[in-house]
Design goal:
Layout (H helix, E strand, L loop, with lengths): L7 E5 L3 H9 L6 E6 L3 E3 L4 H5 L9 E3 H5 L5 E5 L4 E3 L4 E4 L2 E4 L2 E4 L3 E3 L7 H4 L1 E2 L3 H18 L5 H7 L1 E5 L3 H21 L9 E5 L11 H14 L2 E3 L4 E5 L2 E4 L4 E3 L2 E4 L3 E3 L15 E2 L5 E2 L2 E6 L4 E2 L1 E2 L2 E2 L4 H19 L13 E7 L2 E6 L3 E4 H15 L3 H17 L10
Parallel strand pairs: 1-2, 1-9, 2-5, 9-22, 11-18, 12-13, 12-18, 13-14, 20-23
Antiparallel strand pairs: 3-4, 6-7, 7-8, 10-19, 15-16, 16-17, 21-22, 24-25, 26-27, 27-28
The structure holds flavin-adenine dinucleotide.
Flavin-adenine dinucleotide binds next to helix 1, strand 2, helix 2, helix 7 and helix 9.
Length: about 425
């Protein structure tokens, strides 16, 4: 056996968790392979804006190879990992086998349908770039088709948009869709009666954005209602079919479009033989290692991590902070030191509702609503976006939209 002088670290997933782990290991005495099934990193917080024709898909993604160009000890592999042999320490991506000494799993999360009949078949999830483009195409096609439809009932069904889930994605998309409809589409389709168009936001709990203080949920509710969104709280979806949804109270909403933003579960580890919780996340120790596998770390949405008994939310800052700890702990293990406990700093959260309106909670202490929160949201998201060109393009699109009430990318693309 050849003794390796530099340990090999394999990282699965080039999202917020995986990419930040790779960056934290840049220039360190390890040989890193970062693996992703896509050759780009997606900035998920702006994905809903692709679906709402607000920004171009290319403006919120960045090629991974470009990000890693200057980092000599990190290489990229475009591959989808299908299995892991934890005994021999080899990742299996079909023809490609990747051996490792330390492994970081950061495959993120995927949509969870909670077993609602028809949800998987007939709803539009909003978790990947393909899904966002597909949803944008579908919405714009509804308007095109409705503009020639003679039957008012069919037209109303085509022009009813139901969003399930009053979390950040549901709220942000509801606001952005309402503004797309009442701004540019009103001008594009002068023959349509826009009183037939409705956006319905359905939430099972008694308030929106439950991770924020109640006054921010209240502000969000009032603002969305003022914009024209029909918000239904304490409402459960019982079934989805091709042309509608049935609610728990028996009401049926006729619609061609149900956007599913109700839940998430850990991604792509089925059959990998790791202990998962009820939402498919891998249980980790306080040092982010998998019990019994000291060389294996899990970060981001895939990690079931509790601080003081409370599960951490699936958010980008959680993933990037865990990435720093996982990288540091691998280096500690390489040096023969014990890994350190992960400590989370809650930076707060913010959600945009629409033009001049957002809610923000900073460090769990200070809350902001309206224009101030909106400016903060714009600044933070522009700053966090990777790449100067992307920032410039997104800012230009936002400014154009703000000044001229136009959405420049309302294209129906294959
Ligand atoms: C629509 C949407 C909006 C969001 N908005 C916000 C927000 O405003 N603020 C916020 O803080 N958080 C937001 N989040 C959550 C945030 O994006 C996640 O918490 C964060 O991306 C988690 O990072 P991660 O590295 O765990 O996973 P991801 O960033 O999802 O990365 C996972 C990566 O793994 C790759 N992958 C998966 N399986 C495999 C495999 N088998 N082989 C190879 N590669 C694989 C994927 O291609 C992907 O690149 C949002 C998420 C979504 C979906």
């Amino acid at each position: 056996m050849v003794e390796r002088s530099v340990p090999r670290v394999a990282i699965v997933g080039a999202g917020f968790g995986g990419l930040w782990t790779a960056k934290a290991l840049a220039g360190k005495p390890v040989e890193v392979t970062l693996i992703d099934k896509n050759n780009y990193h997606t900035f998920f917080p702006l994905l809903y804006q692709v679906a709402a024709a607000e920004v171009d898909p290319g403006d919120i993604v960045h090629p991974v190879r470009k990000i890693l160009r200057e980092i000599k000890n990190v290489r990229f592999a475009l591959a989808e990992i299908q299995a892991v042999d934890f005994e021999t320490r080899v990742l299996d991506a079909g023809d490609l086998k990747i051996p490792y000494d330390y492994l970081v799993l950061a495959t993120g999360s995927t949509v969870s349908y909670f077993g609602v009949p028809g949800a998987e078949q007939y709803t539009f999830p909003l978790r990947t770039m393909e899904q966002a483009i597909n949803l944008r195409n579908h919405i714009l096609c509804r308007f095109e088709t409705a503009s020639f439809e003679q039957d008012p009932e069919v037209r109303r069904r085509m022009l009813t948009f139901v969003i399930v889930g009053g979390g950040p994605t549901g709220v942000e998309f509801a606001g952005a869709l309402e503004e797309l409809i009442r701004g540019p589409l009103v001008k594009d389709f002068p023959n349509l009666d826009f009183s037939e168009v409705s956006v319905v936001l359905i939430e099972g709990l008694d308030r929106l954005l439950t991770y924020l203080p109640e006054n921010l949920s209240e502000f969000t509710l009032k603002r969305l209602q003022k914009m024209g969104v029909d918000v239904r709280l304490q409402t459960m979806v019982n079934e989805v079919f091709p042309d509608g949804v049935r609610l728990q109270n028996g009401e049926v909403i006729s619609t061609d479009t149900v956007v599913w933003s109700a839940g998430a579960k850990g991604a792509a580890v089925d059959g990998w033989g790791l202990p998962t919780n009820r939402v498919g996340q891998i249980e980790v120790t306080e040092t982010l290692q998998v019990n019994g596998l000291p060389g294996v770390y899990v970060v981001g949405d895939l990690a079931s991590c509790k601080i003081d008994g409370e599960a951490l939310p699936m958010l980008a800052p959680v993933a990037t902070q865990q990435a720093e700890t996982a990288a540091e702990n691998i280096l500690r293990q390489v040096r023969g030191e014990a890994p350190e406990q992960f400590r989370y700093t809650d930076l707060g959260a913010m959600t945009v509702i629409g033009r001049n309106a957002a809610v923000a909670n900073l460090f769990g202490r200070w809350t902001f609503t309206g224009f101030v929160a909106w400016v903060m949201w714009l600044g933070v998201h522009l700053f966090r976006l990777i790449g100067f060109r992307n920032r410039l393009m997104v800012l230009t699109n936002w400014a154009w939209d703000y000044l001229f009430f136009e959405r420049v990318v309302r294209l129906i693309l294959p």
